[in-house]
Amino acid sequence: MSEILYGKNVALNLKEDMKKNIENLKKKNIIPKVAIIRIGEKSDDIAYEKSIIKNCTNLGVNTETYKLEKSVSQNEMLNLIDKLNKDTEVNGILVFRPFPKHLDQELINSSISAKKDIDCMNPLNLEKIFEGKLDGFMPCTAEAVVEMLKYYNINLEGSNVVIINRSMVVGKPLSMMLLSHNATVTICHSKTKKLSSITKNADIVVTAVGKAKMIDEEYFSKDSVVIDVSINVDDNGKLCGDIDYDSVYGKVKAITPVPRGVGSVTTTLLIKNIVDGCIKQNI
Amino acid sequence: MSEILYGKNVALNLKEDMKKNIENLKKKNIIPKVAIIRIGEKSDDIAYEKSIIKNCTNLGVNTETYKLEKSVSQNEMLNLIDKLNKDTEVNGILVFRPFPKHLDQELINSSISAKKDIDCMNPLNLEKIFEGKLDGFMPCTAEAVVEMLKYYNINLEGSNVVIINRSMVVGKPLSMMLLSHNATVTICHSKTKKLSSITKNADIVVTAVGKAKMIDEEYFSKDSVVIDVSINVDDNGKLCGDIDYDSVYGKVKAITPVPRGVGSVTTTLLIKNIVDGCIKQNI
């Protein structure tokens, strides 16, 4: 038997706190609001946008969407962000990534007010995480992993955690966050040799590779806790993670399913960031 | 036999390039200059200052020192840094750390122009390292480790590197720099369990613990490359590293001595940062 770490329970728990915060804001006639900036008409972006708006509406968070042409100019982007930075009714700004290549991503990231940067794109917010200061905005996927581990009482202090990902949205911030929780952290990637012998010795393995079912039972021990961040599509068109779930389930201590795992927590944390931002901006 | 990795050779090699750059600047009537800000009269600081001035003078880099009272106010500090930021003759600003507690370290770090931030205190420069962008200023000790490994042709790609330190001047920036060189990186610290079994499996071990001779041969294999960053004082008042050198020498592939190891490279890199900053500011 492996414990199945569903994301839903974690998300519900987070939402309970959030609802109280939203109610308290309402008493002061404040309703949190997020501004979403979408460039172009990518189906992934549209689906993500819909899911955010639905979740926000259910919780009582206002949304406004800015749909920009793919040809939007650098100045138009910067002017819009500047307007939203100054708008006291907007508490969070979310810009879908990646941007079209003619836009300067670095410049745009820095232009988002650090106080409204709910998706943690501003380098000042990222640097805080590098320093281990976890009281600001964090990339939601990395934060979701930590929330999952905390919710299921999985010990971090002194644990060996292996992360297979070195991106700025998952692996790198997550490694710093786990260090702050006193875990010993190993960061692996495509150039890592003998990956399975490294993961086999870990207490916790977090994967965000993006290859359907590439990781099987050979990578784990019976004491492994396995957190699968990826959402891939398998040969039959079904959603799956990096882990070959059917091969691994039953042979490890605990495992997240895909779907219904980490992904369920990520959007909730994005909304939590809007609400937390709203509270800080209205103290 | 273990190969002894002396810092001197690495420093000399770096100085060769630096001398050429300084000569080229001289042809344009430009002499690189660093402003050193020292608060109070700590003997460590005074020794470090002397060593920097001596090294700068030998290479033809100008220095100017600002000696401030321990009671210096926040505003005096910020005004001085602002003046130096604007002074086109000053190419690098070095403020000795740590500061007296009444000063806001974060605010002062951010106030140093990112272009003159030769000791990598500004969060914008640190965040670049977090992202793996290694074309800017880097903390000199972390950079010295990378330069040592590169000079002695120690392969990084796919190698397992264990770092025993998680500070913002060594462990964290070094881990990001090594990731950019495609190493697999493990970050250990005081809460790490079974440290010796982790280091024993590594290709390269970097220690910056600050405890004289705490690490003996049990931590390594015959193929280990051992980089000792610490400079401690042993029971007999002699300088030594974290490694019990006499126990380990001969039983590993390569090892840095203390003194005459990494420390010899660090100051050289600080001066290199002044010169590189000067070049960029005068393009």
UniProtKB/TrEMBL annotation, chains A, B:
> Which residue ranges does the record assign to the Tetrahydrofolate dehydrogenase/cyclohydrolase NAD(P)-binding domain?
139-278
Q: Name the positions where NADP(+) binds.
A: 165-167, 231
Q: What's the EC number here?
A: 1.5.1.5, 3.5.4.9
Catalyzes what? Answer: (6R)-5,10-methylene-5,6,7,8-tetrahydrofolate + NADP(+) = (6R)-5,10-methenyltetrahydrofolate + NADPH; (6R)-5,10-methenyltetrahydrofolate + H2O = (6R)-10-formyltetrahydrofolate + H(+)
* Entries under SUPFAM superfamilies matching the protein: Aminoacid dehydrogenase-like, N-terminal domain (SSF53223), NAD(P)-binding Rossmann-fold domains (SSF51735)
Q: Which UniProt keywords apply?
A: Amino-acid biosynthesis, Histidine biosynthesis, Hydrolase, Methionine biosynthesis, Multifunctional enzyme, NADP, One-carbon metabolism, Oxidoreductase, Purine biosynthesis
- Say yes or no: keyword ATP-binding present: no
Q: What does the record give as its pathway?
A: One-carbon metabolism; tetrahydrofolate interconversion
Which top-rank group of organisms is this from?
A: Bacteria
Q: Which InterPro entries match?
A: Aminoacid_DH-like_N_sf (IPR046346), NAD(P)-bd_dom_sf (IPR036291), THF_DH/CycHdrlase (IPR000672), THF_DH/CycHdrlase_cat_dom (IPR020630), THF_DH/CycHdrlase_NAD-bd_dom (IPR020631)
Tetrahydrofolate dehydrogenase/cyclohydrolase catalytic domain: residues covered: 5-119
Query: What does the UniProt record say this protein does?
Result: Catalyzes the oxidation of 5,10-methylenetetrahydrofolate to 5,10-methenyltetrahydrofolate and then the hydrolysis of 5,10-methenyltetrahydrofolate to 10-formyltetrahydrofolate.
Q: What does the record note on quaternary structure?
A: Homodimer.
The record's family statement is: Belongs to the tetrahydrofolate dehydrogenase/cyclohydrolase family.
Name of the protein this chain belongs to: Bifunctional protein FolD
Originating organism: Clostridium oceanicum
The lineage is:
Bacteria, Bacillati, Bacillota, Clostridia, Eubacteriales
